[in-house]
Give the backbone structure.
Amino acid sequence: MCKTFSSFEQLGNAMKDMTRVDATLFDILSDSGSQEVARKRALTDLRSKVSSILRNLEAKDYLFGTEDKSVYNDYCRNLAAFGLAAPFDDIITRVMLCLEMLLENMAPDYKTELRAVKKALKEDGAGIGSLGYTWADLKLPFFANVFAKRFVDTTISVAAKPQIVVVEKEVIKEVVVEKEVVVEKVVEKPVIIEKEVAPKEDPDFFGVEDHHTEFKSSFLETPQKANYTNQKFEICRKICAFLNADGGKVYIGVNPTTGKAYPVKEGNIFYGVARDMFWHLRNTTFCHAPINDLETYRRYMKREIHRIFDACNENVSLFINECIHIEPTKNENVVVINVMPSRYCVVYLNGIAYQRDGEECKEMDEDQILVRKQNLRSISKEVRFEEDLTKAIKCKKQVVLYGYYSANSNSIGDRHVEPYEFVRNHEAILCYDLDKRAIRQFKLSRISSIRVTKDSWKNEDKHVAAKTDIFDWTYMGSEYHICLDMTLKAMSFFCEMFANVNRDQFEPIGDGFWRIDTKVYSLEPVRGFILFMANEVIIQETEDTALLRKQIRDYVMEYVM
């Protein structure tokens, strides 16, 4: 039923284009004093965007589990907000199912209980509001875990309690005499329930340090008895060792001796993540933004790790963005740095490559570095181009694409462009073409080489954000109106071929046909689909139908007849 992906990178790329709901809508809908016009407009916008989220989730059947759970935390919050705003809406069942699916993967500690909740919700039709959940809860930092616990506590825990039944004495006597076996079963039932209850996992215990696990008390503050002075660099040294080995985890806020999380506070002293926040506030100048929540803390850690490695390595994003992910844990005062092995390069810190050896972090000698390099993958042309273009976009620089092959003109030439956005899962780049003075899309696989120039952007106001049609074609300045009637076979095949469309966008018109009436950004894919399913599709008249028919006719005359 669910589609799995070969890597978290593929799943992340597929999820990044999904619509998110603007948090300002929550303020309007939760405020009883909001004007009715504003509330209706906000609810319409919320309904539209949630419908888009549902279409993407249901069409692609994700098996969730990506390293970056902040994206899914947002979707949990958005779907829950819709449940509060429109509890009797016709799509609330779909909202609840998708929300439960997200919660199962965002809050694995409650997965078994949440699956049981599905049946209860389906039978009694209880909405989110019936769980005692309010708009204020949308502001909780660990929304998915908190909401999952609320789900379980209010639905499962109460239902799981044994029911107390009051029975008259005469009835008990009669049952004992005539049906002794039944009485024995009733007496033994509570005992069986008690045996099946599993003990709760200790949220404070994180195991022991080994080849794949490292514990640190802080990310910022160096312990008093340590034989080094820079705590951030020491943690990056451990990360470097994991990158050059088999990967691992660095926990911040865990006692290396006991393997247990530090308490948030004892007396007047803070520990773990809370201490780092306090330390940063005390030791930085007023011009630095304070770190007062876990999400800001994680972003700060990622930025500092990137800065330290960037000074020592080229193409740092190849392993920082793909291999290092900072996440919360089962304890709110502990975060974990998940490190995956570097697949493309040996990683250095101040000219030294480190590698994990048991519980130790050791320098690699020349033979170990040579062996490591022999096992690394070669960086593909597209990966190198993506890295260079990412830097160009970040620095707002112009780029020359050398030897670009154009399928439209069937020619090879150089293009002077201002790149500004990746499209088609980073297979292509959207640019402002300085020679043609227009927006153009370039596939990375058709580029021979790239040079980032020293010239800055001069046409940023003309950089139009990417938007795609049902055929996954990017808007390039042209738009066409099409209306197609399809048989069930054609409609099913169409939905399977193109991820941006689903059956909800088709209107049943009778006689076994379904109609889709929409705007597209190119007639080329429309022509190809109609020729492929010619006996299953009927073209209806629009202002652009004549042009579509001409393109089909010209193509057939040139390549078929």
